[in-house]
Amino acid sequence: MIMKKVFFSLLMTLFLNACGGGGGDGGNSSPGTGPNNGGATPAAAALTFTPTTITQTLTGGVSSKISLAATVNKPSDFNGATTVYAYFIDDVGVLLPNTQISQNSTTQYSVALYTSPTLSAGSHQGNLTVKLCRDSNCTSQFPGSPMLLPYSFQVNPPANLPTFGANPSVALTTDMYVGAAAPDPVTITIAGQGRTWTAKTDATWLKLSSTAGAGNAILTLSYAPASLQVGVYTSTIQVTSSDGQSVGLPVTLTIKPPAYKLLAAETGVALTATPAWSRLTRTLQINDSSGHGASWGASSDQTWLSATKSGNNLTLTANPASLAPDVISYATVTLSSADPSVTAPEPIKVALWKGSTTPTLATQIKQAYTNVIADPIRPLIYTHNSGSSIDVYNVYTSQKTATFTTLGTTLGNMTISPNGDKLYALDLATSRLVAIDLATPSKISKWDLSAALTTDVRMKAIRSNGVEIIITNFGTAYLASNGKFISNTGIVGRIDLAVTADGKKVYAQDEGFSPSRTWAYSVDYSELNGGYVAVSLLTQPTGVIGIANGVAMSNGADIAVSADGSRVYTANGAPYRCGSLSPVNLGFISALPGGDTFPNNVKVASDGRVFCGISGGYSSSDVWMHGADGTLIRSFKFAGSARNLIDRQMAVSGDGLMLVGITNDPLLAIVPVGP
User: Fold this and answer.
1) Are 665 and 643 in contact (CB under 8 A)?
2) pTM (2 decimals)?
3) Residue 52 · residue 150 · CB < 8 Å
4) In the UniProt record, does the keyword Lipoprotein occur (predicted)?
């Protein structure tokens, strides 16, 4: 005899909801004379089943679903009851013990019964007994219980069923670092046609979306490793069918010790060789994220580039003698460590331009552009006119080398990967971030952002703990690899952004406000919980004090920071000089010499030189070049008479030797500044 308890809290909910609501007698199911009914005249059946008799044609070897409705006839019979236990009793084993029930209304439920696949061919008739009990041992029953539910099954000879199986979408062998995000869930496809099945595992760090079902189905296996320490963990998922077949799926999860990374201060390097001047060497600082000074080495994949280690410094030196002229040559420098706790670090991307001539004169391209940005490793700039495409120019030849098309409708702010991998642009019309693979420009990705975009939106591609992310001035951060939203940052406002090369600090200045305010933030990306950016305000908003008369700076236009984060600069409409600020507290240090009305651009080159540009239509110069120590070196004139540089639209080539600016003449000016 199979005595199956099925309703539990579902019936309790049904009866309690019905209490006090009246009700009437009814139903055709006949109550039996159970031992707890005292031999009195049987009460009307507690439930009415529809249909009143189960009649079904079955196939041998197959479990079939039987659907029926159960209606409560007299809710008042259950007044005062705190618990109702319901049982289906199958004396001969025609059913499987996995009855299901769902609520249709306060007095009606749908019931699903499953026939046994082992029934022999032929006719099977009998009664199921349904009991509604006051206790789990059924020593006392409610009025109208027990009830009989007749059935009549005709079982035909079995059909040939497909082979039973269970197959995961990927191998169930994976690993992770302790404390990091869990591995991705895995789907398991159950081939269970004509059968019911169960699935189980004894591992607490594995979770199944379902432990029983019928027919073909898909399960989801999730990992829950939060409590696991370093080690190797194994288990088996056992999937068993109603006809006795079983599939075991072994699972192995390896928890690895904390991972550390070798982090180069910069991951993109631009080198240049021309007949008159060149830049063929760069020194980068290398650190590991643990701070314990792991040993490391470096190697170049090209013979023309050497990589030499000295302490924590890596010096890259190029010999362009073997390289073809007037082309861009590429090399990759790989860092490595014998320390097993150090993960594979980011490679350093290097590009070298070997020019057959040295530019000496400024070039003016008569095009009306609105945005420009320089490539950190290639001698290229990217510029657009707020339309749907981006033009590419070589700063050494002043020639347009490409146009990226069908990017959007109304392009806005741009940013670029620190290693030159991708160019990003905002499409204001569709609120999308457009990502262009610069190695293969035809590969374009478009990601929906979480806010409406305007011309005031700014963004920066930064490296934080070796992971490239995009931060915006509307308070969001995204993974650059796939556009996934990571977290809110709190960096919000009509502000311009500047970032250190290591991605650890972000500086901001509001645009167009008087007095101007500046902010400094620390940024730390963690892979825990699927990825998170922790942003902390390093200084309270600072109103920057001006040059001589103590007047606060006003009409903020641009902000820049040196690659190592040791120097911060701002361009403000007033006073009429670019300012140098403390990177620690954003206090005013000094004004850069030279300058005029009204500073609206400031940039720091890879060699540390600083360029301050102005919106000065009648000035004899509109850009001043300063050494890293602040001394004035020389000045330039970009715009024509009564014309000026556009706010924040000045850029320095990756090698620091070419300067670019957009003016409202309109012009795109490309100016050689040399070493």
Assistant:
1) yes
2) 0.66
3) yes
4) yes
